[in-house]
Amino acid sequence: MKSQINYPEFIERYLDGEMTGQELIWFEKELDSNEWLQKELRLRKKVNQAIQDEDYLKFSNELEDAYASYMNESNNASGGKRKIIVAGSVFATVLVAVILILSLTGKQYTNEQLFQRYYNPYESHITFRSADNDINTDLVLAMQFYENKNYNEALKLFESILQADPTRIGLNFYSGISQMEIKEYDQAGKSFNKVVEDRYNMYFEQAEWYLSLCYIITNQNDKAARLLEKIKSDHGFYHKEARKLLRKLG
Fold first, then answer.
1. Domain boundaries defined on the chain
2. Rg (Cα) of the chain, in Å, rounded?
3. Cα separation, 67 vs 74, whole angstroms
4. Among residues of the chain, what percentage have pLDDT more than 70?
5. Could you tell me the fold of the domain covering 115-249?
């Protein structure tokens, strides 16, 4: 029955481009014939455009959960269809209030603020191999520097190891993080691009995410947006963060 469908969840997935195949065909048919759903979709689009703060995003998600819960309870009670309409009206009223508040505050983030909000240095996860004792010694020391936040010294050793053994693609990733920490963002972008271009390595997703942050802090918003769209579409580890960041980057 239509009254038992969790429309808010489908609306969010539709707006995020996460629907494909038969599910997408079904939802668009629902839109053609369901005036209430059309209104909710338009309203949700306005809310997404208005949201500029993670706290508001959290509130919006909580509001959706409460709305879905109310709908489910209404479905199990008498007069379920009428109550769903009432619930939709209440939900719409509250969301309109949220939009007005957000429009009045008009809070916008600079690229630097977005970077500070989403950037955190990557914790080291590296496997040492015993093929070359000299490189291993340097690598252990390099990772100790990295873990102790001595990024300049870590970077010197990463670069030395890579000169001797370019196959250690993961060290380009740690070099990139070290370069970000000392604010060499252009160089960091080059390091992450080496990881992304190699593609078949365990740091691929992480490198894409940090590369997008490099684009943001260097005001390359078009590149950042394209990469964040890809990260979101790939549904990898960072896809939720990419979706939130895209909304704020707007």
1. 2-105, 115-249
2. 23
3. 10
4. 68
5. 1.25.40
